[in-house]
């Protein structure tokens, strides 16, 4: 694997944004998931650099991008993505979102569809029946109510983030603890143990309020309405053992997309770009080249 690409900072209207950039060709923007960072895309940056100018950024409160005071929503993060694209001079681009990043990618594609050439959604599904839809609405309402109480206290806790970071770094550096934290999300363990340690460190170091806001907004019923606005070609990628977005949920999502192709990776959890990188990138490459 090529040397890791470090983050750079770009100043947007909402504050600094950390991003990684590499390769040449038609632009491709990568959006990571909940409690992830652009570091999840290191191998994607390297694998597709010969055919795409690849951009990956850290969502607010994740990685090297500081948290925001404003509430984090898919719509607000779609606006952030488009502002980044404007600042980077990207008129049109392909878009790949993983997990919650797929929710943001859909919001971008429906907000400015003419700018998104081809859309890849990884590890994301949809509610499968009316009972799940009702449960989603109830849970979302209850969590939003709780957020109103917890938000001021979590805002105050940001000033103590530096105090907890050494302890969280120690936990992620412990191979037993880091594997225990990563185990619910992975079926295939990467050959490089540093990938697990770095992923767990990023997971634990995510700003708690940002993580809570994203977890709540990811379960909003607005996602299903936004899906109805997607008209271009879509590639759905998922793991057949994904506990977060099971195959049945991905199939429900596929039924709402008029032009989509599905690929499931065998014995794969929630992070196919890390668990099966060669197969994952081969599928993305073939889909992007078809456009």
SSE layout and pairing:
Elements: E1 8-12, E2 15-23, E3 26-31, H1 42-47, E4 52-57, H2 74-87, E5 93-98, H3 100-111, E6 116-122, H4 130-157, H5 161-173, H6 175-182, H7 193-205, H8 208-218, H9 222-227, E7 234-239, H10 247-254, E8 260-265, H11 272-275, H12 277-289
Parallel strand pairs: 3-4, 3-5, 5-6, 6-7, 7-8
Antiparallel strand pairs: 1-2, 2-4
Helix pairs in contact: 2-3, 4-8, 5-7, 6-7
What can be said about this structure in brief?
The protein is α/β, with parallel strands linked by helices. It contains twelve helices and eight strands.
Describe the structure.
The structure is a single chain. The protein is α/β, with parallel strands linked by helices. It has one domain (8-289): Alpha/Beta hydrolase fold, catalytic domain (Rossmann fold), CATH 3.40.50. Helices cover 47% and strands 18% of the residues. The protein is built from twelve helices and eight strands. It has helices at residues 42-47, 74-87, 100-111, 130-157, 161-173, 175-182, 193-205, 208-218, 222-227, 247-254, 272-275, 277-289, and strands spanning 8-12, 15-23, 26-31, 52-57, 93-98, 116-122, 234-239, 260-265. An eight-stranded mixed beta sheet has the order 1-2-4-3-5-6-7-8, sandwiched between helices. The two termini are 27 Å apart.
- Rg of Cα set: 18 Å
Query: What is the CATH C level class, in words?
Result: Alpha Beta
Written as H for each helix and E for each strand, in order along the chain, the element string is EEEHEHEHEHHHHHHEHEHH
How many DSSP helices? 12
Write the CATH fold name.
Rossmann fold
Strand content: 15-25%
Low-confidence stretches: none
Secondary structure: number of strands = 8
- The first-to-last residue Cα distance is 27 Å
Sheet with the most strands: spatial strand order = 1-2-4-3-5-6-7-8
Largest sheet: 8 strands, mixed
The CATH superfamily is identified as Alpha/Beta hydrolase fold, catalytic domain
Average residue pLDDT = 91
Q: From the coordinates shown, what is the CATH architecture?
A: 3-Layer(aba) Sandwich
| Overall number of structural domains | 1
Which descriptor suits the 3D outline?
globular
* Residue share in helix: 40-55%
Give the class from helix and strand content and strand pairing.
alpha/beta
């Amino acid at each position: 694997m090529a040397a890791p690409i470090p983050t750079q900072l770009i100043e947007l209207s909402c504050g600094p944004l950390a991003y990684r950039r590499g390769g040449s060709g038609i632009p491709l923007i990568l959006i990571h998931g909940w409690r992830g960072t652009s570091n999840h895309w290191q191998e994607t940056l390297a694998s597709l650099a010969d055919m795409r100018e690849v951009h990956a950024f850290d969502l607010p409160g994740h990685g090297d991008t500081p948290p925001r005071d404003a509430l984090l929503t898919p719509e607000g993060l779609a606006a952030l993505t488009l502002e980044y694209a404007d600042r980077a001079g990207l008129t049109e681009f392909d878009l790949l979102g993983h997990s919650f990043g797929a929710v943001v990618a859909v919001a971008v594609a429906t907000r400015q569809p003419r700018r998104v050439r081809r859309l890849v959604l990884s590890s994301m599904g949809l509610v499968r029946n009316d009972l799940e839809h009702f449960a989603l609405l109830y849970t979302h309402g209850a969590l939003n109510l709780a957020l109103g109480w917890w938000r001021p206290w979590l805002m105050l806790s940001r000033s103590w983030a530096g105090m907890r970071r050494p302890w969280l770094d120690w936990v992620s550096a412990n191979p037993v603890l880091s594997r225990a934290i990563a185990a619910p999300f992975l079926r295939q363990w990467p050959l490089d143990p540093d990938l697990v340690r770095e992923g767990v460190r990023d997971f634990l170091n995510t700003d708690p309020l940002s993580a809570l806001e994203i977890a709540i907004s990811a379960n909003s019923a607005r996602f299903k309405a936004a899906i109805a606005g997607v008209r271009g070609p879509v590639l759905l990628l998922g793991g057949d053992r994904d506990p977060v977005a099971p195959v049945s949920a991905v199939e429900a999502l596929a039924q709402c997309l008029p032009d989509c192709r599905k690929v499931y990776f065998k014995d794969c959890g929630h992070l196919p770009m890390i668990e099966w990188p060669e197969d994952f990138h081969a599928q993305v490459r073939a889909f992007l080249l078809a456009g």
